[in-house]
Amino acid sequence: MTMTKTLTTAKRGDTSARYRASAGDHVFRGANYLLFAVFAVICAYPFYYLIINSVSANDVSALGDVRLWPVGFHLSNYAQVFSLPGLPLATVVSVGRTVLGTTLTVLASGFLGFMFTQTRMWGRKFWYRFLIITMYFSAGLIPVFIIMKTLGLTNNFWVYVLPFVVQPFNVILAKTYVESMPKELQEAAEMDGANILQVFFRVYLPNMTPILATIAIFSAVTQWNSFQDTLIYITDQSLYTLQYLLYMFINQASSLAQAAQNAGGNLGQIASVATDQTPTSIRMTVSVLVVLPIIFIYPLFQRFFVKGIMLGAVKG
User: Fold this and answer.
1) How many domains, in total, are found in the chain?
2) pTM summary value
3) What transmembrane ranges does the database entry give (predicted)?
4) Residues 1-30: pLDDT tens digits?
């Protein structure tokens, strides 16, 4: 009995000694923490810079004297920017295109990625290669504009959604992920009488959460930040996006009255804003309002990036 306890204690001692961190390990770990902390500060500072300038005195911010902390703290910039004409409707348009466009892109990418793994699909290799070619060749701006106009998508909300539904890179990601899943999943479902749509929606789609979450993030960021499609295809002021208004404010910040005229606002309201705000304060404040919502997308989807989600999906 005593000998057994001695051997157990010796084994525990060997194990603790084996995994005992040396002074070099502590130095290496500390250096890593310091390096990543510096990198995090470098990444976060630009956004912090926007925030402190948007809440600082406008004359000080215009001179570029706000660097580490706010000077003359106030929130009037946000109150005045929220009152700018066209901003609420532009926010609705941006949110609508982001939610709808992301949903359709995720479903289309997942379904096409699944179908391109089906050997019985007619012309599978041809259609897959045809899709991949579009990653490398484009018709150009003018032919694409003519196509959109012919299809009736100019000055149409759907021009924000339909051209982004099928993205070759997202389809490749989904196809690669489906190919890594066990074939027994589909075989078992088909033995139970499931058709191809039931196999996708009931078997594969629930198990594709990690890659679909990744595609959702890519699509949401692209949809939210896009403004060039508004610049090219939209002249109806009711379809302006929040990012396009930011684009106008940045390029026309020296003349707020002209920006208000383009956005369909009234000059009296804009004139009162111009007396309190500077072009720099407008750029900083609107930039914060545009960037802040998309930042919250990552925490919502981060929990889906987990390895081993397929463990236990096939038993026996």
Assistant:
1) 1
2) 0.73
3) 30-51, 89-114, 126-151, 157-178, 199-221, 282-301
4) 444 444 455 455 544 445 566 777 788 888
